[in-house]
Amino acid sequence: MNTFRLFIDIPIDASSVGEAVLKGNELVFNLITLNEDNISKLGVSQVNYRLGNDSDRQHANYFIIDDRDHASTKKTIIHYDH
After folding, report:
1. CA distance 67 to 27
2. Residue 1 and residue 7: Cα distance in Å, rounded?
3. Which of 1, 10, 51, 70 is most buried, taking the most CB atoms under 10 A from its CB?
4. What pLDDT, on the 0 to 100 scale, is given for residue 7?
5. 74: number of CA atoms within 13 Å, CB side?
6. pTM > 0.85
7. DSSP character string of 18-41
8. Alpha-carbon distances, residue 3 vs 35, 44, 49, 66, 82 (angstroms)
């Protein structure tokens, strides 16, 4: 069996990282968290996502900020049990 990935790119207009994180969390909650049962029924074991910035050339994840205010390059992951 082949593994395919669904990529969804949603532009978020924000005046700060904090505002982008709030809006991004709201989108994740509405798109993924509220539909956990349906996603799990499709056999999906995990959802990987990140909050990027178009002006940042690396694949930064602004959902994960370290104590020096640097964005992580690791994806945020939601795991589903079957």
Report:
1. 25
2. 19
3. 51
4. 86
5. 6
6. no
7. HHHHHHHHHHHHHHTGGGHHHHHH
8. 21, 11, 17, 32, 18
Q: Specify the pLDDT at position 82.
A: 61
Looking at this protein, which amino acid is placed at residue 78? I
Residue 20 and residue 14 in contact, taking contact as beta carbons nearer than 8 Å:
yes
**Mean pLDDT, the chain, whole residue set:** 90
Q: What is the mean pLDDT of residues 42-53?
A: 91
Which token pair is 4? 């395919």
> Who contacts 56 (Cβ-Cβ below 8 Å, separation ≥6)?
71
Write out pLDDT tens, residues 3-31.
888 888 999 999 999 999 999 999 999 98
